């Protein structure tokens, strides 16, 4: 209020408090942070990706390549056959590497070294047995000479990989189990189909998503996770690339299971009544900070709107005009705050 007139509001002092250029937006070299947000030059970013997988053994490498061929429906022998004109079954190591690249199967130097040692051809020079390698990979689709042996067991080909991933401890599994139980309660209360939310990001139906997407979907359900919890979930339910297999996670959650005519459990309502204070802030400091945040977020210059009601530039206006000006600029105050 104006000291000389209790019927008017000194808007000049009010604007200096909440809309001061120095305190609010910053003026001068010390407040120039433009270089923190916009660099002078854009650094060159290489899009090349170097694979540095470190497998445990040759079976781990073959399992990974089988998994890639199964997902993308790749017949790996088609990329090696053109290098072997006489169908001897031998190709050089360089040709073998080119064939893998043509099939879009990227392997590390350690993986390539294991493959060349295991499938080394009995021939002078660096040659490989590409037919044996192709037969080993194609077992993920079918096995050869089934007509000669009808008792051959199918579906036992290894596709799971380890690649040096450490196993979760009992304490970490207990934390993940607690997360599963809490998420199960959230889905049960909201009656949501969580699988459809994951499938919006899984266009190829691989039933796996990145930890970032997994955390984003759970946040959409109102169940946010921190980075440590997401790492534990990816350790328990993740693959060799730490992509989370959400299908197994939802299966363990066992959400939305309907039981008809089940026994009464005696569970009570979980509704918690909350009291909401509609009076607003009681402290002047908190109220002024609230108004400053509104002005800074919407970039409002209140002085220009107050001066429209002060033709003589006295620096004070009526309380009703003061409140209507704040309301017009979407600075909402309760009656108690006003």
Q: What are the main properties of this structure?
A:
338 residues; mainly alpha; Recoverin, domain 1; two-stranded antiparallel ribbon; 2 strands; 43% helix
Question: What do these coordinates show?
Answer:
- The chain is mainly alpha-helical and about 350 residues long.
- Among the domains are: about 10-25 and about 280-330, no CATH class; about 60-140, Recoverin, domain 1; about 170-255, Orthogonal Bundle (Recoverin, domain 1), CATH 1.10.238.
- Helix content is about 45%, strand content about 0%.
- It contains 15 helices and two strands.
- It has a two-stranded antiparallel sheet.
- α8 (about 170-190) crosses α11 (about 225-235) and α8 packs across α12 (about 245-255).
- It is elongated.
- The termini are close together.
- The relative contact order is 0.11.
- The model has no long low-confidence stretch (mean pLDDT about 80).
């Amino acid at each position: 209020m104006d000291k000389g007139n209790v019927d008017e509001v000194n808007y000049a002092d009010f604007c200096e408090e909440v809309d001061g250029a120095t305190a609010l937006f910053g003026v001068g070299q010390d407040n120039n942070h433009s270089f923190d947000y916009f660099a002078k030059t854009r650094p060159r970013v290489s899009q090349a990706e170097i694979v540095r997988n470190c497998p445990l053994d040759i079976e781990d490498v073959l399992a990974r390549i089988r998994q890639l061929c199964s997902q993308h429906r790749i017949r790996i022998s088609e990329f090696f056959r053109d290098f072997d004109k006489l169908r001897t079954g031998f190709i050089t190591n360089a040709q073998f590497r080119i064939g893998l690249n043509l099939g879009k199967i990227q392997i590390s130097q350690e993986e390539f070294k294991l493959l060349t040692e295991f499938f080394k051809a009995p021939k002078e020079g660096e040659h490989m047995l590409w037919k044996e390698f192709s037969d080993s990979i194609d077992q993920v689709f079918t096995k050869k000479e089934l007509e000669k042996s009808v008792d051959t067991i199918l579906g036992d080909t290894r596709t799971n990989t380890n690649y040096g991933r450490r196993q979760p401890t009992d304490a970490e599994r207990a934390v993940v189990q607690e997360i599963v139980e809490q998420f199960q309660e959230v889905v049960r209360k909201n009656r949501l189909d969580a699988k459809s939310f994951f499938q919006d990001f899984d266009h190829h139906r691989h039933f796996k998503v990145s930890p970032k997407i997994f955390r984003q979907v759970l946040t959409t359900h109102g169940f946010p996770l921190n980075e440590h919890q997401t790492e534990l979930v990816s350790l328990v339910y993740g693959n060799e690339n730490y992509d989370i297999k959400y299908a197994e996670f939802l299966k363990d959650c066992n959400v939305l299971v309907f039981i008809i005519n089940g026994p009464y459990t005696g569970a009570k309502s979980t509704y918690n009544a909350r009291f909401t204070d509609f009076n607003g802030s009681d402290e002047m400091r908190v109220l002024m900070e609230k108004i400053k945040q509104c002005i800074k977020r919407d970039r409002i210059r209140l002085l220009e709107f107050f001066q429209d009601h002060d033709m003589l530039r006295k620096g004070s206006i009526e309380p009703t005009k003061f409140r209507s000006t704040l309301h017009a600029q979407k600075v909402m105050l309760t009656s108690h705050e006003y």
